[in-house]
Amino acid sequence: MIKNKKNNNPLILFLSKTSEPLFSKKNKALLSDPMDDNNPITVQVLGVCSALAITVQLKAAIVMTVSVIAVMAASNVIVSLLRDLIPNRIRIIVQLVVVASMVILVDQVLRAYAYDVSKELSIFIGLIITNCIVMGRLEAFALGNGVWRSFLDGVGNAAAYGFILILVAFVRELFGSGNLLGYQIIPDSFYEMGYENNGFMLLSPMALIIVGVIIWIQRSRNRKLIEKG
Fold first, then answer.
1. How far is the C-alpha of 128 from the C-alpha of 133, rounded, in Å?
2. How far is CA 209 from the centre of its chain?
C-alpha cells in the first residue's frame, strides 16, 4: 500500500478506496473519444508516417498495433507512477528513457516469437520511440493524472491509432494482392473474368489517399470536426 502525495488516499495498485468507479463515464471516454472525436491520425494528424509505411500487409499493421498498445499503456503507467518524482527540467529525457525501454522489450519479444514480422517492420518498431502520439500522451496526460486513467488513455489512443492502421492495411492488401493475412480472398473466378489486382494499392501514396477518404467520411458523419475557415 502506498500513499498518493496529492490527496493522501491509500492506493492499492490502480485503485483508491474513495475514487470513482473504474469504468465511470469519464474513464470510458478515455477509451471511446480517441476512436472518433480525437483520433490521433484522422483528427490530430499524428503518426501518419507509419500509416503510409507499414500498411501494405494486414499482419504487419496488427503487430504494430499490439506493439504500440503495449508500449503506450506501460509507458503511461510508469510515468504516472513517477510523476511526482520527475524534475520538470528533465521530464522529456525521463519519458524518452521509459519509452525506449518499453520499445526495446517489445522488439526483443517480437524477435523471439515473430521474427519474420519483426524483420518486415524493421526500423518502424524502433521509431515508436519518436512517435508523436506516444510522447504527446505522456506529456499531456500521464504527467498530470493517476495510474488507472493514464493506463486507459494509453490504451485508448493506441487502439484508435491501430484501428486506422488496420483499416488502411485491410483495404490495401485486399485490393492490392487479393489476399488477407496470407489467405486468398478474391476468388479465382474474378481473375478468370479479367479482374487484376490494383498494384497502385501497394504504393505509399495510396495509403495517404485512403487516410484522406477516412477523414472525409469521418467529418461528413461528425460535422463538429470540420474546421471553420
1. 9
2. 20
CA–CA gap between residue 190 and residue 174 (Å, rounded): 13
Q: Report yes or no on whether pTM surpasses 0.90.
A: no
Q: Which helix (H) or strand (E) segment is 45 a member of? A: none
Residues 6+ apart with CB under 8 A from 224: 37
Listed residue (76, 89, 68) closest to 131, CA to CA: 68
- C-alpha cell at position 89: 527540467
pLDDT tens figures, 44-101: 888 787 777 788 889 889 988 999 999 999 999 999 999 999 898 999 999 999 999 9
The half-sphere exposure of 23 on its side-chain side, counting CA atoms within 13 A, is 3
How many Å apart are CA 40 and CA 45, to the nearest integer? 6
Cell of 3: 500513499
Which pLDDT tens digit goes with each residue over 172-212?
999 999 999 889 999 999 888 888 888 889 888 898 999 99
